[in-house]
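Record type: monomer structure entry
Structure origin: computed from sequence
Chain ID: A
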Amino acid sequence: MSSHPPVRDWATDFDHTDPGWVTDPFPIWDELRETCPVAHSDRYGGTWLPVRHEDVAAVAYDTEHFTSRQVIVSEARPGPNDLPAPIGIAPPITSDPPFHALARRLLLPAFAPKPIAALEPSTRELCRELLDATAGKSTFDAAVEYAQEIPVRVIVRMLGFPQEDAPRFRQFIHQIIEAVDVPAEERRELQDQGELGEYFEARINEHLANPQSDLTTFLLEAELDGNKLEPDHVMGTMILLMVAGIDTTWSAIGASIWHLATHPEDRHRLAAEPELLPTAVEEFLRAYAPVTMARMVSQDFEFQGCPMRAGDWMLLPFPAANRDPEVSRMPIGW
């Protein structure tokens, strides 16, 4: 929850940690599309917010004026040497072209259909175990007891880490993703890479001594231009897989459950027509896209009539773009 004062004008003072945004951002996006499609706020040292599909896509593909060197809007703004090019702190998501393409391409074999399909039986069994654990309960928190448990355990397994370490990953996620509105110095202390870095360094050393058939060993053995990856590249990508694999997945599962809980007509239809499930999954991912990430303005220029300065944040709400009526006729449906 935000520690900032409440937002009074979303066009000139927006804050993505404000309780109003967190609880129900959809009417905020709808109003901004009509009145101020590229909003601005002085918070976080200067932040811009496009909400139309056209503008979000334009920023996402414009690597000349926007850099991915930092993808989380927070009070702790990166300095010129904080995120060295071209790797970035969490490649490939924090890498700019042309390095981004190389860093992304080397991961593709690990996420090809065959290795991912091999995870399905154990993941289904995990889901059954979590649901069985709710037997006899009149109510339970589906977000905490179900949605948040799945990706943590699956990612731990993919990385080849001990399952008993899974709860620690929730703390890591909080440090990196959630505590974005605390003062810069406090955030730096909270996000001190000490514990996180020491944990991953220990797992890397274990895998160097005893290679396994998992993502950690895959990264340790991967090569770019005939050379093994730099240690910072290996650890940064592992941290990215943890953060991106866990936070986005539990958000997507939780949002889908929330939708079905608040739209009984959709829940009843899926129960009666299970063949619609693949389409429903795609619609959940579109309408409740679990990614709102950032770019930074890399040079002074004007975008959609807005004078942007180098170093400004650009927050990209992909679910807002996906709900733009210019490209989507309905909020959700199948």
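Annotation 1: The radius of gyration is 21 Å.
Annotation 2: The longest strand covers residues 292-297.
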